[in-house]
Amino acid sequence: MHQSTQYCQDPSPFTRTGLLLLVLAPLVISVAQTNASSIVAQTRLVAELEAEKVPVGTNVSSIHSSASTWFDVSYYGLHLTVLTQTSYLKGEINIDGVCRSATAGPLVLDLMDHMHIDSIALGGVATSFQQNTSSFSINLPRAYNPGETLSLVVSYEGNPLPTGFGSFEFASHPGGPWIWTLSEPYGAKDWWPCKDDPSDKADSADVFVTCDSTLKVGSEGDLVSVVSQGNGTSTSHWHEGYPIASYLLSVAIADYQQFVDWFRYSSSDSMEVLNYVLPEHFAAARTALVHEVDMLSVFSNLYGMYPFIKEKYGHSEFGWGGAMEHQTMTSTTTFNEDVISHELAHQWFGDMITCQTWADLWLNEGFAQYSSALFREKEYGQKSYWDYMNGQMSLAAAAKGEIGIADTSSVRNLFDPSRIYSKGATVLHMLRHVLGDSVFFQCVRSYADQPGLRYSTASIRDFESVCENVSGRSLAWFFREWIYGEGFPQYYFSWSSKQTGSTFNTTVALSQETPTGYPTYFTMPIDIRFSGDKWDTVVTIFNDSLQQQFTFSLSTKPSTVLLDPNGWILNQSFNNNDIPPTQYTLDQNYPNPFNPSTNIGFQLRTRSFVILKVFDILGQEVATLEDGEMPAGTYTAQWNAAKTPTGVYFCRFEAHPVEAVQAEIYHKVMKMLVIK
């Protein structure tokens, strides 16, 4: 899912500037005209405006599925009669399924009570039921054993109440009625009986829609027929032959005009690319979607053949203010190229492989968001890729909370733009550099082709496992810090170089801070670029502690040292050599009082031998934090007093300049307080 936006310039990668405009009409932006700041623009609305559309006090009972977990849906057959003049919906649905385990009933399915159930038949026999606020219970005549099948027909009607991002909307445009649905994440039960949970995908589905014959109906799969009823109405029949989650089933109805392109994926085979757009937007859409087939080709080469190749791909225009990846037929308001590529990528990541739970939503949105960068890279080159990713990283810097969402009850948090979309894309960008291009794309291709996940569901752990199996490396550290941690590292480094014979021994001292308690530090490979007179080289270090020193033998004396020069890591870095300290200092620790750890800052005016120790009130040594030679710069030491009792402690700092002509010692003692 994606929303459209425009923003003003961001003066730096870590400065946010604010929302300017929500585009409610189709937005056509040439990728060639977009730079990093406009990428920020096109992304931030993705979910900031989603949040505005979600009620703050949403009833928790209406957002979690109450459906019986022992019942595995195999088929939905949805028959709808849409009465546009009265905004009324009549429906009948066939639901087939299999018992996963033995049960004595009842069978519970999801449906909001503003849709009134008229009758239910089980195996062709009328049965009793109870309708609740967001579900209904069917009284079963007997116990069922594992493997047995159930088939029921539910007749219902009512005025759908739009919730979340719309769920079911009776609207209009200058040409007449305009009806559309958007069920993600919890809105399918607003308008049809189902298991409203992404973990249970039906093997196939049929959608029959009867409405005014002047209107065209878009939905999933293949259009089987449009049959006139002889009374001014007609019935459109769409068949989805691939597995589908309930939230990906949709209808879009209006006096659409259509146009067709063809994805020619072999010398003898092609697939229809079908677009339904409002008449007043036909010309703009026809122009803007010129690269749609190119996207299908690029993503099929990266991820494997388009997963619904026996059916179609395309778009139905709707009125929400963004786009939604309904299976085989994305619903969209905008024809912005980055949005269109985002939604197409969802056909692999979201539709073919669906997030197992909403806590795994990163597997949908992060992958789709990053895919827009990959399309740019293939279609327009490296600069376009980096423009896009610099914009994503700018937004990711503002992310709060974990990507692996612990609490999915808030739709506002679930679709947070900085965290799930931009930081989600940034995590894949970083993983690409950690693994290298060849292995990274092997991992993604293997994930998309995994037999147990393909046309099914996946958890974040499933993707991690695929990456570990393909790469042959443990990646628990990466996923722990970037998926289940918060924030990003702030790197502080200083460097010095000393000639020894024909080489220059260059030492880089690196420390980091993090904004939250977890992770305490980020483990990452970091590129360092050394530059000198007509010379440069890049080395990669593996930073796996709060403070580290690395020494390199270089052939030339460097004049410049850059950390992460190409921008592969979400971080802020500060070169302490840029502003050399003018004096020795020991800063008051922070926080103070503290439990269990505190930070102790100090500065070295010149290269010195440093001793930094902690003593208790009796003068007994408790900890040694530094004991060795260090270059000039600004540093932060950390003392973890988890095993130290409550009390007053003293930090003693000594600095002995290495190259001082006369003996010079800087000495200071600071009091600290541990409270438990």
Name a few traits of the molecule.
676 residues; alpha+beta; Neutral Protease, domain 2; Immunoglobulin-like; 4 domains; 39 strands; elongated
What does this structure look like?
The protein is of the alpha+beta class and 676 residues long. It has 4 domains: 2-58 and 359-483, Neutral Protease, domain 2, CATH 1.10.390; 64-162 and 176-253, Immunoglobulin-like (Sandwich); 490-577, Aminopeptidase N, middle-beta domain (Immunoglobulin-like, Sandwich); 585-674, Immunoglobulin-like, CATH 2.60.40.2550. The protein has 11 helices and 39 strands. The strands form 10 sheets. It has an 8-stranded mixed sheet with strand order 8-7-11-5-4-14-17-16, with no helix packed on it. A 6-stranded mixed sheet has the order 1-22-23-21-20-19. Strands 12-13-18-15 form a 4-stranded antiparallel sheet, with no helix packed on it. Helix 1 packs across helix 8 (417-435), helix 3 (292-303) packs across helix 5 and helix 5 runs antiparallel to helix 6 (382-396). The two termini are 47 Å apart.
Question: Sheet with the most strands?
Answer: 8 strands, mixed
CATH superfamily of the largest domain: Neutral Protease Domain 2
Strand content: 35-45%
Instruction: Enumerate the spans where pLDDT stays under 50 for 5 or more consecutive residues.
Output: 5-33, 45-60
Count up the domains: 4
* CATH third-level topology of the largest domain: Neutral Protease, domain 2
What is the 3D form?
elongated
The spatial strand order of the largest sheet comes to 8-7-11-5-4-14-17-16
What's the helical proportion of residues? 10-25%
- Amino-to-carboxy terminus distance: 47 Å
